[in-house]
Description:
The protein is α/β, with parallel strands linked by helices. Helices cover 40% and strands 13% of the residues.
Amino acid sequence: MDAVEKAGSGHPGTAMSLAPAAYLLFQRTMRHDPTDPTWIGRDRFVLSCGHSSLTLYIQLYLSGYGLSLGDLERLRQWDSLTPGHPEHGHTLGVETTTGPLGQGLGNAVGMAMAARRERGLFDPDAAPGASPFDHHIWCFVSDGDIEEGISHEVSALAGHQKLGNLTVVYDDNHISIEDDTLIAKSEDVVKRYEAYGWQTLSVDWTETGDYVEDVQALHAALEASRAETDRPTFIRLRTIIGWPAPNKQNTGKIHGSALGAEEVAATKRVLGMDPDKSFDVPAEVLEHARGVARRGHEARAAWQKSYDAWREANPERAGELDRISARELPAGWTQALPQFEKGASMATRKASGEVLSSLAPVLPELWGGSADLAESNLTTMKGEPSFIPEEYQTKDFPGNRYGRTLHFGIREHGMGAILNGIALHGGTRPYGGTFLVFSDYMRPSVRLAALMKLPVTYVWTHDSIGLGEDGPTHQPIEHLWALRAIPGLDVVRPGDANETAYAWKAVLEHTDRPAALALTRQNLPVFEGTSADGVARGGYVLREASDGQPRVILIATGSEVEVAMGGRDLLESQGIPTRVVSMPCVEWFHGQDSAYRQSVLPSDVKARVAVEAGVALGWREFVGEAGEVVSLEHFGASAPYRTLYEQFGLTAERVAAAAKSSLAKLGQDKGETTGN
């Protein structure tokens, strides 16, 4: 109450009613060591209802994670350790950035999947509960998390995967911003989770008619959830939001605003506290709470013995764990990357699939799959088992609980949040695929991956009108630049098979941000002159002007590199020296020093054309006032892809004409004499 009052904004109600549950979890249930917040054997806690950030911050303070009372006093202030929503990498003990509702629940599912995969990689033969890699994922959710559609996607998959290492506590308080949730929600949430295949338990602190915070009953439920190893557990906890505030409890007003001085004082009187004192934590209370650090340290020490014994018995696996935990790549790994024959023809999605299969033996940490589009995205590593309970494996996809190929079903948004959870957990590196147009379904999760700087890779195929007959619903037009607008996301659109291999290399060498590979359905020629270094720099000279002194520069990405090369041939045949720049990643090119950027796009060559099968938008920056953009400013159509490129003017002839237009703007198009 004091923190929100001082900040002048915040969400006190849920933090008040969940305080006993959070304290119980941190003090008695969860395995953690406040002196070592990154201990790999720790349980993970995810506060999916991130608006109730104080639920977490107060436990971090009481447990001894380094937060001070002064940090709580600076809630939601500039440069404080207690921002309005928890932020991963900003505050010790915060496992993920939460706030957009439902995302944390998806992260928790991803963490539970990652924990199982990690055990399979490093200690698959240990008895249940006997491995140093056995730990639990705990997650608090609110009505908002449950109502968001992503909760269905990730919860259905968690039940299908039988994630017995996951417990979700649902704060069922019947209140949201618009007050009583009955105005918009009436389904039986517990039955919903039963239908998903979860163990469901209920603890009702209102069942006696009075409000009784029955901590023992909740403790029993938490322990029962840990004992259930073949199903995730959903605990419905019936609370009263804002209890025991005498006038504002059980109202929408206490959800997202300060109580006000009078209500704070009245509540303190109910609790037997001094209403004139703020941020008052008696020394004996803090000393008692900090005892969890000693208990956590003892648990850590006991775990360490088991871990050390595992390392001694498994030196090779231990070395691999150390490398993967440090996000380091093994020596010589790039030798596994395939090389594709110049002059051949191959879709970049197919090249990507071959890269993944080639990397499987050398990068055990790399795993992933698709949102039911494996045959289209080509995200399945050849010969690798599926990650699935044995009873659910199929003829086409045999597998086991420790498998490698992920099957998200038709759940793009859930896939995005789960991938984030896998990356946050550590120990492995995930990728996930769908069509580029369906990145729209994933965007909130992608944005959070960028915000948290997670090394998640998206394999987005069917990247343009080049997918052809499926038509405008499946043809991305605005997506490339909409995605490039996300700070910290690398959008990579390779122009041929070898650029695709080089793109994967560059993506995997980055460990501090997500990347999206936009790949073609249609075949593209494999060019002479592609460059691994050039791709890693984001843009490079793929084909120089015939005399080394270009009058025109053509800039292209992906399948339009072929179009630009055709345009160059036409211009060169007309005596116009033309350079082709392949620019697979605008973000990487921006990251180069000015000298390199000048060497690729010299400022004195102002006649320029950018060509991409999407909206022009950001290409204006690269072509300048005299430049032209050959783009697509409208939706596509259903027809063979070559017909679409012709009808929409994405052709070599149009590129050449645009180049002449740019030259004309500069007064450099002399034309031809027609005589007297």
